[in-house]
Amino acid sequence: MMMHGVCAVYKPRGMTSAKTVAIIKRILRTHQKEALAAAQQPPNAENEHTSAPPKRLKVGHGGTLDRLAEGVLVIGVGHGCKHLKHFLGGTKEYVVTAELGKETDTYDMDGAVTARSPFQHISLAQTLSALHQFRGQFMQTPPLFSALKIHGKRLSDYTRAGVHVEPRARLVHVTQLDLCYFAPPEVTLHIACKSGLYVRSLVHDLGTALDSHASVTTLIRTRVNNFGLLDALQPDNWTPQHFERAFRRYPLSFAKD
After folding, report:
1. How many other C-beta atoms lie within 10 A of the C-beta of residue 5?
2. What is the CA angle 123-126-127, rounded to 5?
3. Which stretches of 102-234 are DSSP H helices?
4. The Pseudouridine synthase II N-terminal domain covers which part of the protein (predicted)?
5. How confident is the model at residue 171 (pLDDT cuts 50, 70, 90)?
6. Predicted confidence band of residue 52 (pLDDT cuts 50, 70, 90)
């Protein structure tokens, strides 16, 4: 028995995307082995050398979500892995809360504090005005701690090794940016964007635009293409039965919509 499909899972805060995939892969491969063992006929003289070994189940994800972040992570299983490209370049939505007046080397609470600055001067009107420059298309520099590949190696690996590599600024596209909560030093934003945007960099750059600093405290990805929070399987439901139902609910053609 072989599973094939694409669905969304809810990645918990503190777990890497790679670890999420590894856990799901282990669950589904164990189920695959048990199902094959139960269906297999006892070996005899005719078939003991003719049965082919089962194919290894492929599992992948459609776009990395930071360890600190939580929310929608698209998972592909079996033939579904071929459809993940539709999500790598798709649209995404986030709700992010930031702390003003603090900068860290990772641009979030996982990193070491590198600077502190006053934030009491920041007004609601000033913040709303500053957000205008982060709507539409603009150039953005990725954070030094990121999964961006440069010469086949992650930028974060260079940074941790003490090798400074300056990433090139690239064009990003924010289709919607709203201020949801304003109580300095805490602000919360809703962001809808095309693939390629680094929310941590946007928050960092917003802090600079406000003559202060800013770092991400919480980050939730609420949507990837057609998959929203209500579509995402919670960790308690990462079972073969739930994945089978999800694959039936979202056929592979859903990935292209």
Report:
1. 23
2. 85
3. 124-131, 155-160, 199-209
4. 58-199
5. very high
6. low
Cα-Cα-Cα-Cα dihedral sign, residues 110, 113, 117, 120: positive
> How far apart (Å, rounded) are the C-alpha atoms in residues 81 and 7?
11
Cα–Cα separations (whole angstroms), residue 39 to 4, 28, 32, 36, 42? 19, 16, 11, 5, 10
This model's pTM is above 0.85: yes
pLDDT score of 101 more than 80: yes
Band of the pLDDT at 76, cuts 50, 70, 90? very high
Alpha-carbon Rg for the chain in angstroms: 22
CA dihedral 148, 162, 15, 173 (to 10 degrees): -30
Average pLDDT of the chain, as a whole number: 90
Catalytic residue positions, numbered: 66
Cα distance between residue 241 and residue 200, in whole Å: 36
What is the CATH topology of the domain spanning 91-224? Pseudouridine synthase (3.30.2350)
